[in-house]
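Handout, page 2. Input:
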Amino acid sequence: MGTEKESVVLGAGLAGLVASIILAREGREVRVLESAKGLGGNSPFHPSLHATPIDVDKVASWTGLDTNRMFTMGNVSETFIGTQVFYQKPMYIVERGNRPTAIDTYLFEEAKKLGVAFEFGQHVNDPKELPKGSIIATGYHPSMYRAFSMPCAKGEGYNLIAENDDPSLEGNVYSWIAPYTKDYAYGCVLNGMRYLLLFSRFSMPKEALDRFQEDLKATLGWEHDNWGAIRNHPYPWTFKRPKLLVDGYILAGAAGNNIDPMGGFGIHGAILSGVIAARAVSNPEKAAEELKKLNKRFTVAALTFEGLKRMPASARFYRIVFSYPELFGPMMFLMGRGIPGYDRNWCTEVITGYHKGRGLGERLSDLKKIFTY
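Output:
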């Protein structure tokens, strides 16, 4: 199965699409196998919107693609802890899925121009039946994690996709930090769509969705039905740096755990690890060193998150952090350096401080509010 000039990529998500484009440019015959019936995957998450720190120029340079136009700088970025709002530096927003406005669609069309062959509806239960040197870019796939002995947590949550009928909200990003999740909830508005996700990489209380809906109504006045449930969603959880090569196979994107351990940001790592995976086909040792550098701060960020999630009053703690970020410089340095290949600290970029420009009396008054939620 396969020839010396043929490359097999398993998975048509961001990492797989980028890898297929790079390989096709090198003159290889590329086959992309995807279990879904079409672009966009089987995931309950898509179509979706993602707010993410990203170095758009680095991504464009690495891929050689006009990816900048797929990322929109957000307008308003607000984080709610209780009903208290913290204003943040906006992040970029990108759409995933199979709509014309999605980055997946753009990459798919670019791959087809280069002659990449796509085979949808191809279920591969055992990736090790594929030729050695195949690229595994299957995202959050339980059987792939088992095949390559990747430790996983079982996440859960709820998501909602709705039409946006208020153009003034376009480009807005919202997030909520609350006791009912060890992670957070977020919402984005872009391309005429509202996307909301409440998730946890670990278990959540049964009343989590009800409580989030109450927060959603209290903070934004939004009321939505038709939530989708996410159950037993595999999420790689290990303190070891991601590996590129396992048993002769090349892992990319979420399949290789190229994800920020703290915030769960995966877009940057998916794209850059897709480039490295393609390079690994011809020079695996050099590519492995590149991936090591890409994730050089992974372990520190993972250990920091492990400590924070064990705190019983994490929501209250984060209110203090968001209120007085200048007091938490060392901790934020550890928290914000885990995005693969992102050379800046996303925490210090994003968390600008609710109290900037406020007097001491006002700040002391606000401090009392922290202990009321």
